[in-house]
Amino acid sequence: MATLEDVARQAGVSVSTVSRTINRPDMVNADTRTRVEAAIDDLEYRPNRVARRLRRLDGRAHMLGLLIPDIQNPFYSDVVRGVEDVAYARDAAVILCNTDETSDREQFYVDVLKAESADGVILPPIARSDLNLDIKNIGMPLVFFDRRISDASVDTVVVDNERGARDIVNHLIELGHRRIGLINGPETIATSAERAAGYRRALHDHGIPFDDELVREGRPTRDAGKALTDELLRLDHAPSALFAANNQLALGVLESVREHDLRVPEDIAVVTFDDAPWAKLLDPPLTTVRQPSYEMGRRAAELLFDRIASPDRAAALIVLQPELVVRASCGSGMDT
Amino acid sequence: MATLEDVARQAGVSVSTVSRTINRPDMVNADTRTRVEAAIDDLEYRPNRVARRLRRLDGRAHMLGLLIPDIQNPFYSDVVRGVEDVAYARDAAVILCNTDETSDREQFYVDVLKAESADGVILPPIARSDLNLDIKNIGMPLVFFDRRISDASVDTVVVDNERGARDIVNHLIELGHRRIGLINGPETIATSAERAAGYRRALHDHGIPFDDELVREGRPTRDAGKALTDELLRLDHAPSALFAANNQLALGVLESVREHDLRVPEDIAVVTFDDAPWAKLLDPPLTTVRQPSYEMGRRAAELLFDRIASPDRAAALIVLQPELVVRASCGSGMDT
DNA sequence: TTGTAAGCGTTATCAA
DNA sequence: TTGATAACGCTTACAA
After folding, report:
1. In Å, what is the separation between the CA of B17 and the C1' of D11?
2. InterPro entries under this entry (chains A, B) (predicted)?
């Protein structure tokens, strides 16, 4: 790899002139500039990003960190793609960090990102508060996504979870459902709590009493979704509809329903938070609330670059709107 | 962030002693070592990875590049996770690069990875041969995955595509199918060619004449899969079974079948290459060939670290075996 | 407008 | 066993 010095030699100038040609072209004489540019082309010179990053306060050679629980969850794949497209447009590279929501991995990646002098980090706020503190003190711009946190000092982009949940539960109710089961993640996570709130709100708005027997929460995994649904289906007075609060839980809900040989929607209606490419392929096609997950990533990355450019602007909170996608998995409902 | 110098001052030694304590603990006096280690703990010192990487031939502060077409394709998400888990275990960070198989993005990321002095790169061989050449000359260890290439000088991990395709087509034939449609990617891509070969091989082994009317290829996308299937379904003598050669095509195939109001498997059997979390939720559950995609990533990363450790060992070719997952989407077959 | 030189945080070489 | 110091490739005062 050619270095600044190689270019300087070839162009017959000093390294600083070459550097200037690259970073402040207007400050160099037109003739020298062409000469230097020729040398750069000739040697296929590319600035070494590591050397650039070694200098503090350097605005070039951007490197972003992106912490997510698990790339195998399609919601996060979408977010990652959104972030990366923005990063690409700005010549930035992104370090991908799967944490499994595990403090070991979170700690490791936070350390790595610091040690890499990353220009900023995008991540969902972390449950463990001490680590969160560590992250607040990470010393570089931060953007939260997916989950909001009471602390309003950090740029954040989320979706209106309560509204999404409310919309889809309303839909169920309007179709005649009264006993609606909710399979949710732990309410200690903001998204789960908000979706539960939307569920309760829809019930309340229609004067349907809240029955906590119908609400189950557990880890937001496929297996948990299945086990929780099994519980609900074994109830004496089983629900006529099931609402899975995210895509992983949905997989488990659907699996359980299938194993119980229940027809959808004749025997039971099923709806989910998070749309998926395969949702319309199910029989019947699944009614869902679509989160703009790609856009969430995009906006988060834009917020981050904004923040890098103006470190002192007030923190922004972007609330994206979910969209109810009505397909056929709710039937016409029935009061059981 | 504390630096080596801070630690040195605090411990009352020179920076080289601190550096040595970290990198060659055995070469430093036990007393000084404890003193230095105390200072390190005290200041929460972490080596700056950027500075480490600036020095050539440095074996610490690993940084890997991972080029994939698109993280939103679950096959690649799995691979990424496999790579990352190995990287994490070795304290390495990975830069994620979505290329869309586009030479602009490929070029950009290859440049970035060079400029970041990455320790190595994992990627599927790239179709455009000039870029491939560029990549061969990238000057850092390389591991290919997914697609094999005639050039045997690069470490490679692939799946036995021909066998996978053969197995699943055999399965179809044994169930009585004779007219089997193949929805494939472009045969210029090695994986597509191999899967087509497996398809032909199964036909041939059973004395079924090859009918190229039943084989359609196009871009490996959902839309293409749908359009291609539409074509097949409009045939006078339509196939009794459809084989989608990858997960994106499968989505389109399934969509087309559904829009034609065909029952599976009564009217038509459907099978796919690539298993998916939702494959068993379909009605009927989908018979597939499962690729060990996570393991592909894992093995690729291991190969890369091996290569970094021993740059001169002979190139390895790892061929992973796919697994036929029989579910119910093939019925008992019928000769139409 | 250009060049010299210091500095970013490490590691490696060489002397002590 | 330890410490000075050069080097990695770049940017940026500062001087010319």
Report:
1. 29
2. HTH_LacI, LacI/GalR-like_sensor, Lambda_DNA-bd_dom_sf, Peripla_BP_I
